[in-house]
Amino acid sequence: MVKKDAVVSLSYTLKNDTGQELDKSTPDKPFTYLHGNKQIVPGLENALEGLAVGDKKQVTVAPAEGYGEFSAELKKEVERSNFPKDAKIQAGMQFSTEVNGNHQVFTVTDIAGDKVKVDGNHPLAGQTLHFDVEVVEIRDATAEELQHGHVHGPGGHDHH
Ligand code: ZN
Question: Which chain residues have CB less than 5 Å from ligand 1, an ion?
């Protein structure tokens, strides 16, 4: 059963409100994560709780339970001098910083003179997410995986 600290493998398709496919896993390469460790959006994680191998479910996730509402406040213009002197700042570059005590990832969208435009919205912010999921495998996490808070091995994280 899908429960906290179980390693869960999913086959899924993610679509937006207009039915456009945004992401999917393939049957030979399922998506694997550690349940109950905030590795996937909360709306999907909650909906999967208690499912068994072979269970299929359609899950609709509102932005607040997904990648967040789109926030104009997270689009900012900052001084180049806020970045380390030797940092090569270019569009598409990502960095993280603390905003109101929360860890927030920003993407550089434009550079004009000594001003840098950044956007802290997730690319899927403001979107209602439609997941079509099937649970393909469930196993217990190892002690090491629990300590790290993520999955090792196939579909997971590689340590070298
Ligand atoms: Zn690890």
Answer: 148
Residue 34 Cα to ligand 1 middle (Å): 11
Domains of the chain: 6-67+126-148 (3.10.50.40), 72-119 (2.40.10.330)
The pTM of the whole model exceeds 0.85:
no
Q: Over the stretch 84-111, which tens digit does the pLDDT of each residue have?
A: 888 889 999 998 888 778 788 899 999 9
Q: How many CB atoms lie within 10 A of CB 21?
A: 11
How far is Cα 59 from Cα 56, in angstroms, rounded to an integer?
10
How many angstroms does the Cα of residue 37 sit away from the middle of ligand 1?
13
Ligand 1 centroid – CA 153 distance (Å): 10
